[in-house]
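Quick note —
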Amino acid sequence: MNDITNLPADFVTRLMSGIAQARASTILPGGKPYFRLLKTKKYVWGQSNDEMQEGSRWVVNIMSMAHGWSCWVDGGPKKANDLAGEVLVSMTLPRPDQPEPIGEFEFKELYSMEMKCLDGDDAGTEVLYRINSTGGKRAILALMDEIYGQLARRPAYPCPVLVLTSDTYQHKKHGPVVYPIFTVVGWANMNGELDQGADTPALADRTPTTGPTRPARTKAPLGAAPAPAVEPVQPVPTAQTHVGQRRRPSAA
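Predicted structure written out below.
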């Protein structure tokens, strides 16, 4: 280290400002399991791939919504891809500049949001959903358009309540590709109370999801259900930066 008895005043000021900003904006790793859409068109979360119950409703914590970039390194035909770098900040902040590629692999757009299940077998479950697929980005951008409109119409109830389904499209190189569909069936305020306004779709009147008989491990589709009490949506810090290695889940 250099032998400097007194640090320059401007350096001290800049460092104090940087520390304050970092403490206010850095997200430490949390305990919420990752929510994923598999190639089988099923939504699952956690290491045990617990399967989402069809027709269940999930409320989005809009304060957790974030955007940024991630870089996945191709592991080759016999290996899974690895996450080599990630930059993620709150949606309230401008998207960071796209980082430089890692080797031959470029950083691609990344979106993130936290959700909580309102009913059925998974009621109370909280998950983290990260989206970087093409179809997923279309779904999240459409959801943001709906949130934007809701904030203009009825800002007291800004949190969308979703029913999640999926579909496929044909890719020239990869064949059938699964993508998520987010259907907004209602809205909640930041205390988790559902909007019962006349202009809001009736949550209890939505068409129940039906399907063929499935293995015992699979949760039966959820029909119409009354709205349960919901715990308040908790705010989150504003930004996250992560660089490291991890296996990529089979997700969309």
